[in-house]
Each structure stands twice: as C-alpha cells, then as structure tokens.
Amino acid sequence: MPTPKTFHVKSFGCQMNVYDGERMAEAMAAAGYASAADATDADVVVLNTCHIREKATEKVYSDIGRMKKRRPDQMIAVAGCVAQAEGAEIIRRAKVDVVVGPQAYHNLPQLVADAATGAPTLDTDMPLLSKFGALPARRRVGPSAFLTVQEGCDKFCTYCVVPYTRGAEVSRPFDAIVEEAKALVDAGAKEITLLGQNVNAWSDGKQDLGSLIRALDRVDGLARIRYTTSHPNDMTQGLIDAHAEVPSLMPFLHLPVQSGSDRVLKAMNRSHSRDSYLRVLERVRAARPDIALSGDFIVGFPGETEAEFEDTLSLVAEVRHAMAFSFKYSPRPGTPAADMAGQIAAEVMDDRLQRLQAVLNRDQEAFNQATVGKRCTILIERAGKKPGQMLGKSPWLQSVIVEDGPPVGSLIEVDIVAAWPNSLVGVAAVAQAA
Ligand code: 5AD
Ligand code: SF4
To answer: Where [4Fe-4S] cluster 2 is bound, by residue (predicted)?
Structure first.
C-alpha cells in the first residue's frame, strides 16, 4: 500500500466522539498528514464509531462495505466504541487496516504508518496513563468547544455498553483541564461544554464539578460553561449551588431519567427512583428557576408494561422538558438486559416511542414559545441558510436565527420575537436609553 498522505475523520454518536474525532485529526495533522475535506478524497478514512444501539453498530459495517466498493485502495481505520467492543473481529469481518479504541487514539498516526507498510494494526488498550498527555495542544476551534473532563462509567445500567467500551470512571486532573480550557479560549472558544459519560461524577478527590466550574468561570475570555451528560445521583449540592452563583454557567441541564416507573428503573439498575429524580430537579429549579431541563428516555425495556410506560408519560407531564432524546430499547450483546425475559415487540416499541415523542415535542414547543418576548444573549456559531442570516444559541441551548447578524463568535443581545418547534427568531436588541 502506498504511504498515505491525507486523512478524513468521520465521527458518529455522542459529543464525546465529536471531541475525540477533533483530537484524532489534530494528532494526524501533527504527524504530517494533511486533512481532506471530503472522505472520498482521503488516503485514510477514520470512522469514529458508536456502539450504543444496534443500528449505530450495523451502520459501521455497511459504511465500510460501501467505501471498499467505491475506493478499494483507500485505507480504513475504525476508532471509537465499536473498535473497542469488536476489536480484531472488525479486521476479520470487514478487512479494515487499523482498529483503535477510545483510550488509545494518541497512537493513531503510528498505527496508520505501520499498517501502510505491513499487516493491519490494532490497539484497544486502556492504559493507566491517559492519552491526553500524549496528544498535541489545541490550536484552532470554533466559538463553542468541547472539553473532556471525565470518561467512563461504573454505574452498569443493565442496558448499556458504555462501562464496557469506555471503561471505569476516570477524572482528568484539575490543572490539566484548566490548562486545556485556556488553550481553547486562545484558540477561539467563547463557550466550553465539559464532557463526560458521567460528567457530574468528576472529582479530583477533594473538589467536585461545581468547584471546577467555579475555577473555569475565572478563565479570561470564557463567557459560557456547559456540561453533559449527568447522572441524577451525582448532582452534588456544590454543583447545584454553582447554578445559582456562577454567572457563566448556562441555565441548562441534561439529566437522563430513562423511565418514570420504579420497577423499570430498578430492573435498569439506575440506582435512583422516580421520586429521587424529581426531588433533584426541584433542588436544581430552586437554585436556577429558569433552567431548561433535558433528558434521555428508553421505551420498551424488557418487561415494560403499558402501565409502566404510562408512568414515563406522567413523569414527562410533571417535568415539562425543554428538550429530550428518546429511544427504543436496543439489546446490546454482553449486557444483562439483553438476556432478560419479556423483550418487547417492535410494534409496541414503535407505538410507545411515537406517543412519548408527541408529548416531548409538545413540551419543547411550549418551552420555546415561553421564551418569546425575552431578551437574552446569544453566541453566534455559524451562518444561516439565507444570505446575511446567522445562527446562534440562547442560554437555554435553543437555536436562534438572526437576520443580518454579526460574525461567528459574537455574543449579542437579542429580543426573541418568534418561536418554532426547533428554533427561535431573534432581533438585535436596541440599548435602552439611560
Ligand atoms: N437501547 C436504547 N437506548 C440506549 N441508551 C443507552 N443504551 C441503550 C440501549 N441499549 C440511551 C440512554 C442513554 C443514551 C445516551 O442512550 O437513554 O442515556
Ligand atoms: Fe450507560 Fe448508565 Fe453509565 Fe449512563 S450511567 S453511561 S446509561 S451505564
């Protein structure tokens, strides 16, 4: 195989994968490979994969098949959670050149070079020393950047592959995170979203995520802080207080609950109840009354009855989320739930998902409508579809369209004048006379 010169990274799945994909691209660039804007033009394509549901995994194999047909000479590297879960099986089944796991991608450039001159290469180690120390520093990012502060999960919800693909909970050191935040701001970031599979479990033994957020609030030039994804049991009082006290912490919380039924939550091994979840939300809302709440839901978990599903609907009615993600249960090999009795028929899952999404969509639209008439700051992230149109994000993570908006990276005050199911319309606010 000729020595590859250009690469393209394609990320699927969660925001952690987006972050990892950016860092892989930076590592490849630092090793002398040139970035190709289009996957078809690249000598090496890195598929940064997702294993969370069956559909996502199947897509990897069909993508590889399509790429092989189009350009048999192209080198294919599989990264991410499918790489970790399937390992050498991907080389056997799909004849790819490189397999690299989420904790080993600092070695990606070397694995590519070795595969170019010899046999396929594989690295799915989870070394004690983190990859972060071996990765090049951040240089250029958009106005809203991701920063991984915590990885892995020890919670072992019975449906979930994450504890197996991402390993045990590990927090990055405080100083390394503050350093990276400063580098991101120097590289153009105005907003940083702290990432972790259980980001609110972040701790350095002494401090919690709330303390880390307070430290980041003092970083010059960093206007906005967000964090995702959280577990209800890790909402410490320090973090909840930060929502009341830290001005740069945005009023938004993604706190998955998965189900409104205590029996199902127990079978999921969620280690919280419907009630304890609702009480956490009450404390968060007391600290920050305007907070926008988001969540994840699974319908059709093994054994879920119609009445238990209705418990989820009644929880949703009680919370009134600003947005939410909902999924049909997908059995994952190796997880306890995959072998449970009472797997739910596809038609039943389809029906439940539709009913749940109907109320979640209604709540999202109502939340958006309720922002009409408010004045808020938005961060401009990109150009809109029409000339002059710009797209920004409200503090509550809604997309806001502004005609004749200022350039990407601007923070401007707008009046929200209209709301749609998925976006708002803002008009630059005119300063009030003193
Ligand atoms: N089936 C369906 N949804 C799942 N999730 C995680 N594992 C599964 C699964 N096996 C959902 C959960 C989680 C989100 C990231 O994906 O709702 O919060
Ligand atoms: Fe998966 Fe549960 Fe861990 Fe979330 S808390 S990553 S759903 S095991």
So the answer is: 153, 157, 160
